[in-house]
Amino acid sequence: MKAVKIGVLGLGTVGGGVVNVLKRNSKEISRRAGQEIIVASASARDLSRKRICDTTGIHLTTDSFEIINDPEIDIILELIGGTGLAKDLVLQAIENGKHIVTANKALIALHGNEIFAKASKKGVMVLFESAVAGGIPIIKAIREGLSGNQIQWLAGIINGTGNFILTEMRDKGRDFDDVLAEAQALGYAEADPTFDVEGIDAGHKLAILASIAFGIPLQFDKVFTEGITKITRADVEYAEQLGYRIKHLGIARKTDQGIELRVHPTLIPERRLIANVDGVMNAVLVQGDAVGPTLYYGAGAGAEPTASAVVADIVDVVRVLTSDPENRVPHLAFQADAIADIPVLSSEQIKTAYYLRLNAEDKPGVLAEVTSILANHNISIEALIQKEPIEGETTVPVIMLTQTTLEKEMNAAIIEIEALSTITGSISRIRVETLG
């Protein structure tokens, strides 16, 4: 039987990892796929650069279009990242009748609807397991393993850089800026860490997870994102005292009103398994109506963990190369004509509990004013901590946990509380989820 030929666009960390895994495990992979799989061609910007993989026997080029226009190539691996050139390459490859495997979450989140529509028209597959949570097979789990369920909600630690920072802040009592600098030195964070620490990277991944969980179009522009840059060492310590841990979560929930899509720092009860996922590791908790809660844990990045997911997608493509396109697993889990345009809720329509930290003047009546404002907005207090005043200070930190309330009401209450003459500075607000 003729070998399946792969063209790799990008020989960086992931591309090199894929070549290594395909070569090292070639016999086992062929046994699973039913055909031999070989890397025939690969492109890179600098062919003289030292690689983490052995490129012997692989045709190397600096021109990615040379690969996608090669009639001998069956499957294209798009591993260059970005949404400009990558999109052009993928669309042209699809036009040429080639199947696509990509690790590019931004490309899928922003342009997936267009890409999948064209792929369906041309009868080719676009697989993207490695775009979310690295080596964790979360896409396959939701799209296939849980296909008998109505997914009610999912919550995930889907950015390892942010999780590393919050773990270090908790375990070693360090400040955000200090840990971020170390994350950059270790290669976990980019020189410009905005995508990681502001939730954009996690937002791309959440848009993908929500689409396959609920059968909705990809809608990254409707994902609410809030970063971790304002989380202080004090917030981490107070959360611990209250029995919680702070994690940067992506949350998607289906309600009677619509879909919640949000990425933000979140207090989680410390007894939850996902609250104990530390360092650069990822985890996704999925709640199905039949199966209940299921947790998926593993490496969210790295050469070979990500390559594991890429190669699994290659095997899936090879297994069904000769099958009728109408009988393949749909790109977004649901049949294309069954994708539902369910409304995505604005952040003000979200209902959740809150952690509040404010600095109040140390005198009678202040807390009464604050609680009165909260009560006027139908916000009940679940727990309250008032710290002892520091000698020479006129204000004290007050920490509150509220019961579940509408975010619109919380926003209005915070504006009123911050306007009080007895409250100094802005209020720190972190959402609370029990994930029960």
Summarize the structure.
The chain contains 14 helices and 17 strands.
CATH class of the largest domain: Alpha Beta
Q: Please state the overall shape, judged from the principal axes of the Cα atoms.
A: elongated
Largest sheet: 11 strands, mixed
Distance between the termini: 51 Å
CATH architecture assignment name of the largest domain: 3-Layer(aba) Sandwich
Mean pLDDT score, rounded?
95
- Please count the helical segments: 14
| CATH superfamily label of the largest domain | NAD(P)-binding Rossmann-like Domain
| Helical/strand content category | alpha/beta
Q: Give the tally of structural domains.
A: 3
Write the layout of secondary structure elements.
Blueprint lengths: L3 E6 L3 H12 L1 H8 L3 E7 L15 E3 L2 H5 L6 E4 L6 H11 L3 E4 L2 H18 L3 E2 L10 H8 L5 E7 L2 H13 L3 H10 L8 H4 L2 H15 L9 E2 L7 H9 L2 E11 L4 E11 L11 E8 L3 E8 L3 H17 L31 E11 L4 H11 L4 E6 L8 E8 L2 E2 H12 L4 E10 L4
Parallel strand pairs: 1-2, 1-4, 2-3, 4-5, 5-6, 8-10, 10-17
Antiparallel strand pairs: 7-9, 7-11, 9-10, 11-12, 13-15, 13-16, 13-17, 14-15
Helix pairs in contact: 1-12, 2-12, 4-5, 5-10, 7-8, 13-14
